[in-house]
Amino acid sequence: MGNYMRFESSLWSYNYYIGSQRVFPNTFINELNSYNKTAGQMFKSGRNLSVTGNILGSIGGFCLGFDVGARLGGGKGNAALLLGGGGVMLVGIFMSRAGKEKMKEALTLHKDDVTTLYIIPTQTGIGLCFNF
Q1: Cα–Cα distance between 7 and 23 in angstroms, integer?
Q2: What's the total number of domains in the chain?
Q3: Residue 41: is it exposed, middle or buried by C-beta count within 10 angstroms (0-12/13-18/19+)?
Q4: CB of 66 within 8 A of CB of 85?
Q5: Span 43-70, pLDDT tens digits
Q6: What's the distance, CA 107 to chain centroid?
Q7: Enclosing domain of residue 85
């Protein structure tokens, strides 16, 4: 089951899948931990970094947009709000991307760890099964 783990970006967060079934984030991380604790911890750390980056990016984007809107509406604007919002937004974007890459790296580590070879008896003899 853990061999088919993946996640996809959605508008504000991620969707997590084990096989074809969509699961809650904690279920996903627990399943990953059951196979490889290092990958599970790395994934959780990356997820936390990505979520924090999304929050910071949203706050920075709001501040930037608020100031640009004020200027477009004929107001004076605030240079500190404009520059600070833009800076916080960029930091948030970089954090979010770094977190997502860490999550991908964790799943790669997991996939490398679950490669297995089985010899299985069948109705007509012996079968060889290789999972990767």
Answers
A1: 10
A2: 1
A3: middle
A4: yes
A5: 999 999 999 999 999 999 999 999 999 9
A6: 10
A7: 2-131
Q: Supply the pLDDT for residue 15.
A: 92
* pTM metric for this prediction: 0.76
Q: Which two tokens stand for residue 104?
A: 């991908």
Phi, psi of 22 (to 5 degrees): -80, 135
Categorise residue 66: left if φ over 0, alpha if ψ from -120 to 50, beta otherwise: alpha
Task: Report residue 35 as tokens.
Answer: 């196979």
Task: Say if residues 106 and 46 touch (Cβ distance below 8 Å).
Answer: yes
- CA-atom Rg of the chain in angstroms: 22
Q: Confidence class of residue 1 from pLDDT cuts 50, 70 and 90? A: very low
For residues 16-36, average pLDDT: 90
